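Bit of a strange request maybe. I'm writing a small parser for structure token strings and I need a real example to test against, not something I typed by hand. Could someone generate the tokens for this chain?
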Amino acid sequence: MTTTQSLREAGSGVRLRVLDSAGVEQSLHMPGLDEHAALRQARLRGWRVLGVEALPFEQARPDGTGDRGPRLSLLLFSQELLALLNAGLTLPEALAALVAKERSGAARQVLQGVLDGLEVGRNFSDVLQAMPAHFPPIYVATIRAAERTGDLPQALRRYVGYQQQFEELRKKLVSAAIYPAMLLIVGTFVMLFLLGYVVPRFSVVYESAGKDMPWLSMLLLEFGKTLYAHWALGLAAVVGVLASIGLLLARASGRAWLLGWVLRVPVLARKAQEFRLARFYRALGLLLVSGISLPRALGMVRGLLDAAQQGQLQDCLTAVTQGRMFSDALIAAGLANPIAESLIKVGERSGQLAEMLERSAQFADDEFARWVDWASRLLEPLLMTLIGAVIGTVVVLMYMPIFDMANSLQ
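Reply from user aminoacidic:
Good idea to test on real output. This should exercise your parser:
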């Protein structure tokens, strides 16, 4: 079965028109159920079915947008749901309150789909599993484990903490990239202004003087005159490049391609691997503390690693299923740095493996954050120096003929 087929089966559903026990007609969307299962649920609730409508995959998605549509903010949803549950509301009451306050139509439809699933008697985790575009397997597994223990708020609290750590690092990366990006944009427009406006006016002066010019200055002046004569074409090229970059960043596949291209730099590739390992440790600890078995948890966090690390994880999983100690299997697979190795061994001896995995992730996150701060502080002056050198070179080439004329006059 292909991935697309699996998603279609998980996301498909039906819409029922029923008369409830009070004789009120309702229209209910049941995501993830086929017609027979939906009719069985209706009979168990004592409802009279008036009509059944099968929904294709695209319509069964609660937001109705398909794979490319907007997604529910899982962190915000978990925080708000946790606050309402802590206030004493039941799960259906909390979800109804979230549906009522939500202003985004797409998010409201997702929440309404979850609420509809609960109202027909399905488990919370089963409803979430039927919406894989909004609720990842780690989240579903955490909720399912909480259903067994009856402590949903604690599970939500753990996931919120897990996701907040990732969001904090993401914000650090974004903020560190804003200033260098602005430098590049401003420097590019200054260069275009010099080449397309200032340089052509200098060329008029030099041509009227009738003096020979250095070939570099001549090349610069010819380029400036060409840019000035075809400014509309140059402006269209700049707009096209900016639009292409915007479209590339707007698509998930484009961002993935760009990230893969950037991570070809050895230093960045090594730091990206360390970042993935930190997320791997934290997610694994989250699943273990929720009561998920170690082999199953290892299989669920596979998607947080790259292709090479996934092969190493498979070796680790094989060793664990054969009875080898987890720390030894992790070290043999090359998925543990010295700090994580020491902490995980302590966790195995003390029975606090989940806590030690979290500490390993926190140590790696702190080290990564320090590296981001150092790299951003180093990159900013380097970019300013580079832009200043390029602009200075253009200015010097423009004034070189003037220096030559001054020397000839002397």
